[in-house]
Amino acid sequence: MNPTIRQLLDTADLLIGKDGSPVDASVAVTAVPAPPAVLTTTAASRCRGAAFALRAALESAVTACLTTHGAPRTIREGTMRGALLWLRCCTEAGTARRTKAAWSRLCLGCHYHQYEIGPTEDQVRAWRTEVATVIALLAP
Question: Which helix (H) or strand (E) covers residue 37, if one does?
Fold first, then answer.
């Protein structure tokens, strides 16, 4: 797992917190120390932000896997749908399906619509667990 993926997962953990209360940002482990601050956003905003961080981590892991297996540059730098199709050739079918399913759920959680309720903390925690598992399966 590269440092970028680790930082994105840590960011998601920071946003969802342990008890749903505002999280002290100074306790996060990052490469650059942040000034003490308290995240005072709504739970819906934090959950959606965590979903974005998880999706970015998953996309980075897919790109790293494709790079390791020598996928063409147009696939690695193209759309994620194309990358997920190519992933079937690089990993087991079950891993590719889990990756596609997790990415699809995260995409739904990231998109904002006025008529929909955003992802809940329980959903984001479940996605966090699934993304960490899939990233471990994609690692060389």
Answer: none
CA 35/CA 26 separation, integer angstroms: 6
pLDDT, one tens digit per residue, over 29-82 is 445 555 555 556 677 788 899 999 999 999 999 999 999 998 888 888 889 999
Q: Are 20 and 50 in contact (CB under 8 A)?
A: no
DSSP state, residue 114: T
Radius of gyration of the chain (CA): 16
The Cα–Cα gap between 138 and 8 comes to 16
CA dihedral 3, 80, 45, 109 (to 10 degrees): -130
Nearest to 128 by CA among 69, 25, 56: 56
pTM for this predicted structure: 0.80
